[in-house]
Amino acid sequence: MTEFTPFLSLAGGALIGLAATLLMAFHGRIAGMTGILAGALPPFAADWGWRVAFLAGAILSPLVYQSLTHAIAISVPLTPTALIIGGLIVGVGVTLGSGCTSGHGVCGIARLSPRSAIATLTFMATAIITVFVIRHVI
């Protein structure tokens, strides 16, 4: 059972959109998290500073919000092994799809990219099928 929070979800989506817009406005870059992460890891990109700051904000902001409000209940119902396998599968998908959900789904669709629309539809269909299989078949 999940607890849907429409106002928090709307606020979170607006902040993601704002961050993507500001990154494009000030740095001319797409807010694709895997691309940002890749440039922040060795071998470092020449512009690694903003990448590290962006990632730090993405990681620390929910932690600060949680510490101030205690509104987010964080639980991970999977084993560390399942998380690692899932991460590797996502990494393969990001490589094959030339981008991630944030790059294609947030920024690509906003730029009316047909390739990003198809990629996002593929991500969503795969996620829906995966959840169905895990929850109802396995």
Automatic annotation (TrEMBL):
InterPro entries in UniProt: Sulf_transp_TsuA/YedE
Compartment list: Cell inner membrane
Transmembrane segments: 48-65, 72-96, 116-134
Membrane topology classification: Multi-pass membrane protein
Keywords: Cell inner membrane, Cell membrane, Membrane, Transmembrane, Transmembrane helix, Transport
Keyword GTP-binding: no
A Pfam family it matches: Sulf_transp
Repressor is among the record's keywords: no
Assigned protein family: Belongs to the TsuA/YedE (TC 9.B.102) family.
Protein name: YeeE/YedE thiosulfate transporter family protein
Organism taxonomic ancestry: Bacteria, Pseudomonadati, Pseudomonadota, Alphaproteobacteria, Hyphomicrobiales
